[in-house]
Amino acid sequence: MTARLRAQDVTLRYGERVVSTRLSLDVPDGAFTAVVGPNGCGKSTLLRAFVRLLRPAQGSVSFDEREIGAYPPKELARQLAFLPQDPLAPEGIKVRQLVSRGRYPHQSLLALWTPEDEEAVTEAMVTAEVEDFAERPVAELSGGQRQRVWVAMVLAQRTPYLLLDEPTSFLDITHQYRLLALLARLRKEGRTVIAVLHDINQACRFADHLIAMKEGRIVAEGAAADIVDAALVKEVFDLPSVIVGDPVTGTPMVVPE
């Protein structure tokens, strides 16, 4: 698989605190990539660098062989949609209004709202299962409902790349699996997905490509069947485990000892 989105020898830091040093990664085009690892290992920081929310101290991030910083904001947002870990909704905003913000990159002074925008918003709300409370204030929703609204906004953006930082947070187990199945389906339809996930078994089941991180570096990457074993789980998570086959999919399943 080729790579349009790349990080090359990047050093990422917040002030004086260095998170990653000389990290390189090619995001496989047309794949569902899951990034796993312990808290604080640099997973979210990597995604922030990909969408220009964090500028590398050294090295470069590029999309289609063009520096990410060279893209005008709307042009980049038509290619890469990003769902951060803790998004904040404006006070008083309703569900449909928030989802509609996903269409902002596609609007211009000559065409502020189009039938395509309306179709994209409606389709995204149905897909994320939030259409029943379209006119409710976002602040009145549960944490899981709000998370699905944010997912709908990202889907409404209709970008070829989706970058999601812990998208299953706050979701009950049913909606976790529905969302991951949706991301897998979008990958089959030609989208590229990269998501930070906490559950390694969910990552193994749904993702084509795994990236395991620890202390700001990539420990292993590849198909789950090729890289996930007890030694990797011990190294990355410091967790003794047994690896068995998932009884449904046959993919690796981590069973803690």
Kindly describe this structure.
- The structure is a single chain.
- The strands form three sheets. A six-stranded mixed β-sheet has the order 6-7-8-3-9-10, with helices on both faces. Strands 2-1-4-5 form a four-stranded antiparallel β-sheet, with helices on one face.
- It starts with a strand and ends with a strand.
- Helix 4 (115-127) runs antiparallel to helix 5.
- With 257 residues, it is α/β, with parallel strands linked by helices.
- 32% of the residues lie in helices and 28% in strands.
- The mean pLDDT is 95.
- The protein has helices spanning 43-50, 73-77, 95-100, 115-127, 143-156, 173-188, 200-206, 224-227, 230-237, and strands at residues 3-14, 17-28, 32-36, 58-63, 66-67, 80-83, 161-165, 192-196, 209-214, 217-222, 241-245, 252-256.
- The chain is built from nine helices and twelve strands.
- The longest helix is centred in the C-terminal third of the chain and has 16 residues, at 173-188.
Order of helices and strands: EEEHEEHEHHHEHEHEEHHEE
Task: Identify the strand order in the major beta sheet.
Answer: 6-7-8-3-9-10
User: Helical amount among residues, as a percent range?
Assistant: 25-40%
Mean pLDDT over the full residue set: 95
Organism: Prauserella oleivorans
Protein name: ABC transporter ATP-binding protein
Pfam family, one: ABC_tran
Domain ABC transporter: 5-240
